């Protein structure tokens, strides 16, 4: 089990904070299967999202992670009930639902240069017209796998493996150092 740690930085170009404890269930199966789609809707109130998207409402989310994988987000304490409900609903189809809450760590990255911080670390087009609320990217963050989505204007939720939490905290902090803004998406860049 990982030791508890805290992460946080707000003296740079973006604020970095450890995300609150989050319930997470990985669901693997044929996402076009009506039984799987109905089970997800019943357990979460959300439809299975399109590729590269996340559907969220009322503290529950469904993330598209790959053609045969979803990540279901809920309150940490709700995981056992939601997992049981999913497993019961999916007992007659080829699918797997498993609690991965304690295997993941999360960060909240916010501020007008949050996109800059992520763009320095991820091979993703983060231009505002290319990555917006409701979209999700599962990608590489420096040297480790990660996924992130927007919570609102200039605010991102990022998840990684818990074993890589310190590394991710460190690279985010370095990428957000004061004076390191790239300003690639600014309407006006100082000095031009």
Protein model, in words:
- The protein has 192 residues and is α+β, with helices and mostly antiparallel strands.
- The protein has two domains: 8-19 and 103-175, Gyrase A, domain 2, CATH 3.30.1360; 23-102, 2-Layer Sandwich (Alpha-Beta Plaits).
- It is 21% helix and 33% strand.
- It has four helices and eleven strands.
- The strands form two sheets. It has a six-stranded antiparallel β-sheet with strand order 1-2-8-11-10-9, covered by helices on one side. Strands 4-5-6-3-7 form a five-stranded antiparallel β-sheet, covered by helices on one side.
- Helix 1 (34-44) runs antiparallel to helix 2.
- It is elongated.
- It starts with 7 loop residues before the first strand and ends in a 17-residue tail after the last helix.
- Pfam families: SoxG (PF04268).
- InterPro entries: SoxG (IPR007375), TrmE/GcvT-like (IPR027266).
For this structure, the CATH topology of the largest domain is: Gyrase A, domain 2
The major pleated sheet works out as: 6 strands, antiparallel
H/E topology pattern? EEEHEEEHEEHEEEH
Query: According to CATH, what is the class of the largest domain?
Result: Alpha Beta
In round numbers, the mean pLDDT is 91
Level of helix content? 10-25%
Tally of individual helices = 4
The tally of strands reads 11
Briefly note the structural class of the backbone: alpha+beta
How many structural domains does the protein architecture include? Answer: 2
Sheet-strand content, in percent, reads 25-35%
Protein name: Sarcosine oxidase subunit gamma
Pfam family, one: SoxG
């Amino acid at each position: 089990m990982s030791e508890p740690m805290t992460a946080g930085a707000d003296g740079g170009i973006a604020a970095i904070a450890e995300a609150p404890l989050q319930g997470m269930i990985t669901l693997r199966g044929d996402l076009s299967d009506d039984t799987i789609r109905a089970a997800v809707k019943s357990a979460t109130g959300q439809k299975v999202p399109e590729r590269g998207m996340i559907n969220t409402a009322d503290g529950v989310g469904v993330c598209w992670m790959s053609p045969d994988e979803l990540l279901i987000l809920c309150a940490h304490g709700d995981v056992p009930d939601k997992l049981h409900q999913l497993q019961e609903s999916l007992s007659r189809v080829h699918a797997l639902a498993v609690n991965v809450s304690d295997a993941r760590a999360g960060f909240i990255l916010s501020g007008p240069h949050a996109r800059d911080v992520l763009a320095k670390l991820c091979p993703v087009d983060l231009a505002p017209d290319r990555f917006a609320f409701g979209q999700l990217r599962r990608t590489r963050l420096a040297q480790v796998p990660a996924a992130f989505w927007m919570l609102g204007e200039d605010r991102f939720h990022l998840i990684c493996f818990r074993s890589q939490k310190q590394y991710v905290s460190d690279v985010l902090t370095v990428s957000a150092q004061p004076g390191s803004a790239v300003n690639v998406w600014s309407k006006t860049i100082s000095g031009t």
